[in-house]
Structures are given as structure tokens and as C-alpha cells.
Amino acid sequence: MDHLEIAWSLNQGNSTFSVITSEYLSLYKDESSLLMGDIEHVPQTKASYDRFLEPNPLSLHQREIIREDPRDHIYKYKMLEESFLKDLFPECDYKPSYVLKEHIGRYQGVYLVQFSSVYPNDYTRQTNDQNDGMCFYRQDPSFLADKGLEGYLTEVEDPDVQNTYKGEGPFWHRVYDVNPLNAASKQTTIVANSCRTSGNIVMSQSQALPIVTAFLKALHSREDTQGYSLLRVVNVVKREDKDLGSRYLVELELVDPQGQTVLVSRYIYAQDENSSKPALLCSPKAFNWNPSATVHIIVAVKDQARWIIQFIREMEKIYQATGDKNFNVIIVDYNSSDINIEKRLEMAKLPSYKLKKMGGNFERSGGLQAGIDLVEDEHSILFLCDLHLYYPVTIINSIRKHCVEGKMVYAPVVMRLDCGASPRTPNGFWEIAGYGLMGIYKSDMDRIGGMNTVEFKDKWGGEDWELLDRVLGNGLEVERLHLKNFFHHFHSKRGMWVNSNSEKKEK
Predict the structure, then answer these.
(1) Distances (CA, A) of 19 to 46, 347, 372
(2) How far is residue 396's CA from residue 295's CA, in Å, rounded to a whole number?
(3) Cα–Cα dist 72/497, whole Å
(4) pLDDT tens-digit profile of 325-345?
(5) Nearest to 122 by CA among 27, 14, 199, 16
(6) What is the pTM of this model?
């Protein structure tokens, strides 16, 4: 009762415990009169949440998945004026063969969605996973039986060379170089739909550069843009339709004649692709993204005070980094007793927000639909989400450019972090079976009937797949990509909402 000693160790097998001395511990605070969400008195340290707003320290051993990429700052680019791109390519009908023309059976949609591919490598593959190789190929047992690569090496007989080797066994000399394997470029859609560590499919340079070359040729053929030069291929996303052609999102960083940099971000279509001929590009009819569309981030909550605070801080982080005023936070609260959400939102530095208070038992579908109903502009985008998420600051830009009104919704894949992992050491797996995180235009959501609040009134789990069925059955396509720096925190289920069967359920 009169003494407390705390020790800690790294989550590694050979680590030992060290006592945390008193100068690193805060004084006692009587919290008996505080709500769970009252945390201002908790000291900030290097381990505290707010430190995630600071840049990651670079390291030679940094995992690929958190290495810096030009896409991480794409929101900072100035967009090339739309007038410069008008009629850049001839317009063509866009009717992919994979877009459905009829409704489908319950929970069939998850088997119909295909992943798009990207260029250059976005490093979404979990390279530190020990079992990752099994996602790409089946190992040939005869390879190890024949001592692996040993048969391709020759033993060095020079005694001076052998004396420099301190290990056991002979010293080997490499007789030729082997080109490194870019595993991300070898995976297929089948792998992406089954392997939870593989990340995005990466296009080869030979696939992407003909499209970029044809795009630049079109720019240089016009007087207004002939003086622009390519600085960097920021991003290319390909959705292949083997029967008709491929749709591309091309994002290029250009330099104008005055030395100013601008970004081109545009959807194009390539019909009858043939590597032996220059790519023929056209502009898919009525398939454009709106860079100024308002995005509404919608979440339903109940009694998850500290996770609610974390969610609001995430939204503040996005606004702080981007200054984007065209997004709105909507929280639907089922009578939370551990936090004053309205007070917390009033304190938050957000461009705009709405709070909807609900009574009764928690309903995920009902709560999200209540948030949807608050949105009046049918030409704005809804993003249906959950708590416990860590967002990349590019999330608003990503949602906008992968949602096309009347044509396409966006279902980014989130990485579930393992116990002990964090956004700076992101061990975990991609949640490839989940579709609960979805961006969709309000007009499209209304057209397909909104959330299913009848069948999923007092339960959750399956409502995302049911929604996906209706998305596809109403002729919309789904852009499916692993989103870098998008994480679902590992968390305790303590305090999670109880369904009608009195079972604890995780959202």
C-alpha cells in the first residue's frame, strides 16, 4: 500500500527487466471524480500518442513498409489546372466486363472483387514476416536436398583467403551474380486475395512506362503544355480488364517552363494493349475524380472514451498536416457515459464536425446510417469507418481519387497490428476479408439502399459483406488496394458493446 515498483523489458526472448526509477514516474492523481476520457493530467512522454505526429526517425534497419515514399506527401502538390487537360485524349465509352448488370447472391461479392496493381513499388508487402515466401511459391524440396545454391559455388583454395574466414567449414567464392528477385512484381491477383502479408501487386516498369510515355506525348503535342517536363512518376494504378483493356490512374510530377512543380492526376483507358505498339489512350466517359469533393468520416460509438479521443486526435492530425477544409467528422454516439464527446469536439481543431446522439443499444449499421442521414449534399463522399484506427495523413486525398460518382467505390485494406506492434514497428497482417471501411458517394449510397438496418439491427459482423453485395449488384466497381500507413491497433475487448445474445463482439 505504500510502495510501488515498476519494471519493463522489450518484448523479446532475451530481454531482462529494468526498474523504472522515480524521476520517470508521475505523482499520484485522484481520478475518482474523472471520466475515462479526462486524460489531460496524464504526462506526455516519448511513448505517448502525440509523438506519432513527429516524423519517424530514419534508420538503416527501417522496415520497408514505413519507408518514405512520394505518395506520402501527394496532398502537398499543386494540381495542374483542369483546362490544360481538357480534351487531352479522345473520349471513349467505359463499360468494363467485370461490372455486374444484375444482383448477386448473399455474400458472393467478396469473391468477385479483384485487386488493382501499382507502380512504382509502394512497399506495402510485409518483408519482415518469416512465412512471407509461402505466399509466392511452393518451395521445391529437392532444392534443399541438393544443398541449395552450394552447387553453383566453387571452393577457394588460396590459404591466405581461407585464413581470413573465422567460421566453420570451407570458404566459398561467388562465381557469378544473380539478379535480385522483386517478389512484389511476381505475385498475382490470386495471391493478393489470399495472402495476408503480400501487399499490393506491383506493375513492372515495362508495363507502366509505355502508358506514361503516351501520356507525356499527348501533353507535349499541345501548345499549353509542351514546355512541361517529367520530374517523377509518383503513382500509377492499373485495373486490368482482360477482355477489353485496362483503366489507369496516372499521377505525374511535372515541371513547368518557369521551374514550378505541378501534379497531374487523371484516369485514362488503354484499349487493346500491345507491348509492340505505342499505347493508345482515351478518356473514359464520365469517369473523373473530384479533387474538391467534401469527405465525411463517419463512426458510431458507445463507451470507448479513450479510443474516441484517439479517433478525434487522428482527425486533428490529418487537418494539421494537410490544411484540407473539405472534410467533416461525424460521430454517432449511443449515450456514452465515460466521456463528454460534445466537449471534446468543441476543443478539437477540426474544419467541421457533427455529433448525433442516439438512445438504446449500440447498432453499427443503424449508427452509420444515422450519420449518413446527416449528409445533405449527395455529391459528397461518405467514408464508413471504425474506432481503433491509425490513419495516413493522405487518407482524404486517397478517398477522393478512388471514388467516382455513379461508377466506383473505394475499399482500402487496413493492416491489423499484432500485440506489441505500433505504426512505427508495424508487424501484423492485411485484413483482406474486411470491407467495413468504405468510401462511397452519398448519391450512390442512397441509390443502393443505405445500410441494412433491419437484418443487422442488434448484431454486427457480415453487414460489410452484405453492403458489398449491393454495391456490386447495382453496377458499381470497387477499387481495392492496400493502403500504406493505415493500421488497426491491437486492443483489448474490455468495454466492447454487447449484442442481443450477450456476447462480446469486436467491430
Answers:
(1) 17, 37, 50
(2) 7
(3) 35
(4) 999 999 999 999 999 999 999
(5) 199
(6) 0.83
